[in-house]
Amino acid sequence: MKPTALKLELTELALVAAGAIPGALLRWYLEGLTPGLVGAPTSAVWAATLRADLVANLLGCLGLGLLIGAGLPPKPARPRLYLWAGVGFCGSLTTFSTWMLVTSLALAQGQIGLAASVLGASLLGGLVALAAGFFTGRRWR
Length: 141
Known about the structure:
The protein is mostly helical. Helices cover 81% and strands 0% of the residues. The longest helix has 29 residues, at 3-31.
């Protein structure tokens, strides 16, 4: 590998990491916004986690919509912002694995209605948030 290619890869890695840290911290913060859950029934803890997961995913979809609407397609002309905000920040804020984990745990605890509503709200809400971000980003452009 040429030194310039390595430097480019390290720069891109640093951009993704710089965005991923605040995205992950925001997700962690959202899950901690439910006070009084210490000693609460497990079902209440998972219900709060599902809601925090939904908020994080919708915020991430809105952010991705803003990036795309503002003129950052999948192969953007300004890849640094895309790597930092799109891949790093929004990628760590929205995680499919956490969404599936908390949904499956809710199902395992018999909270079928809550799990189904969060799945539906995440899918439909994510599309609506993406579209809202996209059209807002286009207006800014």
